[in-house]
Amino acid sequence: MARVCFFLGIIIATLFSCKKSSTPSPIEPPIVPPTSFQFSDLKVNGNFAGFTYYGLNNIPVVKITFSSPINLSSVVGNITFTDAAGTATPFTPTLENNDNTLVITPSAALQPITKYILTTNTGLLSKAGNKLQSSVAVNLITAVDDTDKFPRISDDELLTLVQKQTFKYFWDFGHPTSGLARERNTSGNTVTSGGSGFGIMALVTGISRNFISRADGLTRMQKIVSFLKTAERFHGAYPHWLDGNTGKVIPFSTKDNGGDLVETSFLMAGLITARQYFNGADASETTLRTDINTIYNGVEWSWYRKDNGNVLYWHWSPNYNWDMNLPIKGWNESLITYVMAAAAPTYSIPKTVYDSGWAQNGALKNGNSYYGVQLPLGPANGGPLFFSHYSFMGINPKGLTDTYANYETQTKAHAQINYNYCKANPTGYYGYGENCWGLTASDIKNGYTASSPGNDVGVIAPTAALSSFAYTPTESMAALKYFYYKLGNKTWGNYGFYDAFSLQDQWFATSTLAIDQGPIIVMIENYRTNLIWNLFMSAPEVKAGMRNLGFSSPNL
Q1: Residues 201, 394: contact at Cβ < 8 Å?
Q2: What is the helix (H) or strand (E) element at residue 502, kind and residue range?
Q3: 52-56 and 136-142: which strand pairing?
Q4: Packed helices 155-171 and 193-208: angle between N→C axes, nearest 10 degrees
Q5: Do 127 and 180 share a domain, yes or no?
Q6: Does residue 137 sit in the same domain as residue 167?
Q7: Backbone conformation region of residue 362, classed left if phi is above 0, alpha if psi is from -120 to 50, else beta
Q8: What secondary structure letter does DSSP report for 481?
């Protein structure tokens, strides 16, 4: 029995052994990683500065080094060289460094102030037939063409040219029915009350400079005043925008469809300046002055105190009342609003409104130093430069003081800080410097903003530096020459300088705005002759009103 069991065990073991060997387990093939090569180094004109390069010459040399020698024939279709719009730029590829370095050179000179993108795609092959592991993109931005775009003329001739060309915005492009200034060069029938005040000052400057005759200037002023006498007003204040044909309000925003006291004050300052200029004894000029007085006296400044409070309010709407709820507090562009309100023979405001509302009992003071310059009033670094332009187109800051500041010091410090900031260029924007400076409210790419050291988006507005001539004449002249001679083919148009530009983004506005063009003409004139300052400050109401607010000046 034991022997039988032994043989059975051998048979069973043999059967199982045979079955196992007849069905072996499958063997998995080894995993082979994809073969590729890598980017190793980049040099543009011999330097490495990341993957974006500014200020390049018009035939830059780009060298891209890889971990393997390159198959030059694979460059076609796998290296693209285009401008920002996608237009292909011809180039010549060569190899060096044992064929590990691909050298790309434009076949023709690149355009100035233009962005190009050089992209190496993953289809690029090594000599072994391997593909590039990851694509490489390099941004190449060319420099400003340093050649003069216009013939050189004397500094005095250049200032006159800028004033004359910019004057055309208000004269040639003035609204045909109302005579007022259009908001911007694409505004159609939309005219601006504040910008028209600047335009009236520009009109006076144009007559004084013999750009137009006094008779023609008077005719335009008669048209303007006639229109304003019948245009829509709200407790005497004009809206921000008007229809130049009908005089009806065009809402600036949904609730801003009524009186705008700040814009009205800019308009009134212009009208008072014109009244002082047209001082002839003949009936036409006498009637013009009478009509201007009627318009000015009709502004209910005190009503905009909102229930007799100690601050003026910016807006009132017949539909939304005081919903905008914006008290006019300093420091900003609105000093002129309090001056015009205090100077008004009717509906004037007392000093307490100025002290408590505008000055906030001294809370508008600063006193800190920025870029080596002490700033008496306002926000850190001074804010946008229009703070020192709009009110001071009429108000002469020279020797002007009150409880809160010396305004000659204030305006000069503000402009100097703005200049010093742009020169220091802490944000590293391409193009900023001692010849290219000026941050203020302006158009920007796809929008509008109030640029300042605290809100710097890389956009320079010519009006900022040029309207500061009275404060920073040397720095402003350097900027003017750069804007005109070096950038003039992109910045200069039918109505003077376009609104703004960004060398960082290779963007140049094609727009012109009344509130930016006007200060250029007027503040250059104040720098040259004090004309508008002298006229505005000669008004008896202005003298009395400013004295009542506590101002002291040789001009009062």
Answers
A1: yes
A2: strand 501-502
A3: parallel
A4: 130
A5: no
A6: no
A7: left
A8: H
Beta strand extents in 99-189 (DSSP E only) = 101-106, 115-120, 131-132, 136-142
Using the structure block, give the residue that is written with the tokens 């202005």. 542
Which of 130, 119, 127, 118 has the alpha carbon at shortest distance from 70?
127
Can you give the pLDDT at residue 15? 36
- Mapped to the 3 state alphabet, what secondary structure does 311-371 carry? CCECEEECCCECCCCCECCCCCCCHHHHHHHHHCCCCCCCHHHHHHHHCHHHCCECCCEEC
List CB contacts of 529: < 8 A, sequence separation 6 or more: 208
Q: How far apart are CA 44 and CA 61, in angstroms?
A: 6
Number of Cβ atoms within 10 Å of the Cβ of 425 = 15
The backbone region for 388, taken as left when phi is positive above 0, alpha when psi lies in -120 to 50, beta otherwise, is alpha
How many Cα atoms within 13 Å fall on the side-chain side of residue 247? 15
Is the whole-model pTM more than 0.85?
Answer: yes
SS3 411: helix
Q: Tokens in use for 292?
A: 């201007």
Which secondary-structure segment (H or E) carries 42?
strand 39-44
How many whole angstroms separate alpha carbon 504 and alpha carbon 435?
Answer: 15
393 in a domain, yes or no? yes
Closest CA to 415 of 455, 373, 457, 444: 373
Q: Has residue 317 got a pLDDT over 60? A: yes
Number of domains within the chain: 2
Query: Do the Cβ atoms of 550 and 403 come closer than 8 Å?
Result: yes
Question: Tens digits of per-residue pLDDT, 374-410?
Answer: 999 999 999 999 999 999 999 999 999 999 999 999 9
Range of the domain at 74: 36-142
CA distances to 137, 197, 253, 295 from 317, rounded to whole Å, are 54, 22, 11, 20
Are both 119 and 192 inside the same structural domain?
Answer: no
Question: Is 174 in contact with 224 (CB distance < 8 Å)?
Answer: no
pLDDT at 191 over 90: yes
How far apart are alpha carbons 37 and 387 in whole angstroms?
58
Same domain, 132 and 164: no
Residues 117 and 137: beta-carbon distance below 8 Å: yes
Helix pair 214-230, 283-297: axis angle to 10 deg: 40
Closest CA to 477 of 226, 212, 179, 154: 154
Q: Which residue has the tokens 């060398």?
A: 503
In Å, what is the CA distance from 551 to each residue of 363, 405, 532, 555? 18, 10, 19, 10
- Residue 293 amino acid letter: N
Q: Which residue in 337, 220, 221 sits closest to 271, CA to CA?
A: 221
Nearest to 200 by CA among 267, 256, 246, 151: 267
Give the percent of the chain with pLDDT over 70: 94
